[in-house]
Amino acid sequence: MTVDDRFSAAWADAQSPPDLGLYLSDAADAVQITTLVELVRVDIRERKLRGGLTKSLDDYCDEYPELRSVLLESPSLTRQLDDEATADPDDDRTALAHGTVTSYGPPMLDPLDHVDAGQRIDDFDLVAPIGVGAFARVFLARQRSMQRLVAVKISEDYGAEPQTLAQLDHDYIVRVYDQRLVPERNLRLLYMQFLPGGTLLGVLQKARKVTWTPDRSGQLLLDAIDDSMEARGAARPSGSSVRAELAELSWPETVAWLGRRLADALDYAARRGVLHRDIKPANILLTADGVPKLADFNTSFVVGADPMADFGGSLSYMSPEQLDACHPETPGTAAQLDARSDIYSLGVVLWELLAGRKPFPSDVAQAGDIDALDAMLASRRAGVGADALADLPPDTPAALRRVLLACLHPDKDKRWANGRELATQFDLCLDAHARDLVDPPATSWRPRLRGWLVAFVVAGVGIPNAIASLYLIQQNRALVLTKLSPEATTTMINVSPPINVIAFAIGGIAMAYMCRRLLSMPRRLRRGETYDAVTMAHARTDALFMGVRIVAICFALWIVAGLAWQTALYFTGSVPTVVELHFIAGQVICAAIAIAYPYFLMTFYAVRCIYPVFLPFGRTSSADARQLRSLSRLSNFFLAVAASVPLLGVARVAFIGAEQIPLVLVSLRILCVGGIVAFVFTYWLFRLLEQDLRALERVVSQD
């Protein structure tokens, strides 16, 4: 005899209402919620039949707070119980007297009234209840023909759910095997993969019972899974690399780890035209290793189908537009929903898992309860408030907070566009180095330097080029001007200022043009402006190759300036070959100085401060990964150029006469010692830059 059968028998023998709680304590922890719903249903029915003993649904919720959580997640179940509690008891007595009532719920659930554990239906022995909903019940069952454990969802035979689920074959979606129809009982048996790790609801309940401490980690998730497996008599797996990985993650990282996989599942389903529309902790199942899988697409909306065929979902996890579609007095429809609505619901689930409570207040909205729906809509349209932000654990990374807030934005156009974008952002949250680049901590210097782009470019380019110019002037005075005629010397001195002025002007204009997006877009993005994907991709490219383009301008200007001086000297008469060689050698050394050191200064600044600004906005692609690898290869080239500077200075001595060496000895020593020191500095920047590029490559999309 089942628990609810014993409770019904107690009602038949008792003069006063029996204590429902005594029978609830007989149920195992894993099935208490299911048993509670059934006991409440029996209690409502018996109280109505006896008259004068009626009890409202709110009274049950006050007595059993866990019931309120269930009702928040299932408005359909709420309507059923409320209808039963408020129906005219005389109708029930009359029906009972004529023997026409076998169930006191809505007619659509009549076939399920006598389905319980211990029975055999078709090819399945029902072992234990797993969950109960408004339109179905789920049991752990043994399939006789295959001798395996499965989860069987038993519902009335209607709808196209099996056909919808048959499209979905994904690592993070519960695999549906097949369906069986039992026409004599008007039942459909949908049997699917059985996951012994329980649901995310069990993890959430365990997390709420455990006081937060700084060392809370993924082990909490594993402990909740082990509790569920123990209740079902399953053995904990050993030697699992996934469990070992989870145990090492912090709690916020664990939430991001789960979110990354669920976002991938949503993207897979959405690309096949399937929306879930009922994402909640109870519909996220867990394997023994802790891998999440989306389940219960029974309220899924198939694009192109009748949008109001069976609009479902759990109110407390719904997006504003989904609540709007549920509201009888607002113009929203189910046809207006898309993947961003599921992303919102996933954001609510993950926020609740992270903080221990939902980001918005929730009330049980019963049938016709317009006020509760209005309150829910108002709270969601207002966005996440300060109180909800204060609920987040202190160790929540800024990146995860930003990602979840984007999921929960009231305007769906400002949420992540699809599950793939969201999965990439969760990858970022799981990479400590990358998330520190994109969302630096409050104490970091990087956000403060983002507005100093112009000053940094002027200093980073100007100082090395000024040093190169001073070196060239000293070398030309010692090795070039002394070998020229007075007329040629005067010409060279006279043409230098205009050449420098023109070169600096052209270089400044070219650099400003190449950096135009970097100068304006970060500020506009912070103000909430949006850009299309192509513009965002151009901005990321501009930031990544800013250093390359700037030093290319510098190199071109040094070459053009050298040619201009050579041309001016040509018109003054013949120039000794040795003078030309010294002049060219000086230009080469200065060009090496002008490109190697500014490259690392500019690129390090851009990768640390500018490029990460664009990653939270717009989808990245495999092109971004290729660009990061390309920049890494270019860095090796520029490192070689930096190493060559002192070597070039020493090599030049071989072409200088003995009598001229004292004239350049001081500058040569400065060049060699300074070049070595500068190389050590650039090598340090190179190593840091390589780490940054590898971290960023790990988190940009490879698709």
Automatic annotation (TrEMBL):
<keyword id="KW-0418">Kinase</keyword>
<dbReference type="InterPro" id="IPR011009">
    <property type="entry name" value="Kinase-like_dom_sf"/>
</dbReference>
<feature type="transmembrane region" description="Helical">
    <location>
        <begin position="550"/>
        <end position="571"/>
    </location>
</feature>
<dbReference type="GO" id="GO:0004674">
    <property type="term" value="F:protein serine/threonine kinase activity"/>
</dbReference>
<keyword id="KW-0723">Serine/threonine-protein kinase</keyword>
<keyword id="KW-0472">Membrane</keyword>
<dbReference type="InterPro" id="IPR000719">
    <property type="entry name" value="Prot_kinase_dom"/>
</dbReference>
<dbReference type="GO" id="GO:0005524">
    <property type="term" value="F:ATP binding"/>
</dbReference>
<feature type="domain" description="Protein kinase">
    <location>
        <begin position="124"/>
        <end position="427"/>
    </location>
</feature>
<protein>
    <submittedName>
        <fullName>Serine/threonine protein kinase</fullName>
    </submittedName>
</protein>
<keyword id="KW-0812">Transmembrane</keyword>
<dbReference type="InterPro" id="IPR008271">
    <property type="entry name" value="Ser/Thr_kinase_AS"/>
</dbReference>
<keyword id="KW-0067">ATP-binding</keyword>
<feature type="transmembrane region" description="Helical">
    <location>
        <begin position="636"/>
        <end position="655"/>
    </location>
</feature>
<feature type="region of interest" description="Disordered">
    <location>
        <begin position="78"/>
        <end position="100"/>
    </location>
</feature>
<keyword id="KW-1133">Transmembrane helix</keyword>
<feature type="transmembrane region" description="Helical">
    <location>
        <begin position="452"/>
        <end position="473"/>
    </location>
</feature>
<feature type="transmembrane region" description="Helical">
    <location>
        <begin position="493"/>
        <end position="515"/>
    </location>
</feature>
<feature type="binding site">
    <location>
        <position position="153"/>
    </location>
    <ligand>
        <name>ATP</name>
    </ligand>
</feature>
<keyword id="KW-0808">Transferase</keyword>
<feature type="transmembrane region" description="Helical">
    <location>
        <begin position="583"/>
        <end position="607"/>
    </location>
</feature>
<keyword id="KW-0547">Nucleotide-binding</keyword>
<dbReference type="Pfam" id="PF00069">
    <property type="entry name" value="Pkinase"/>
</dbReference>
<dbReference type="InterPro" id="IPR017441">
    <property type="entry name" value="Protein_kinase_ATP_BS"/>
</dbReference>
<feature type="transmembrane region" description="Helical">
    <location>
        <begin position="661"/>
        <end position="686"/>
    </location>
</feature>
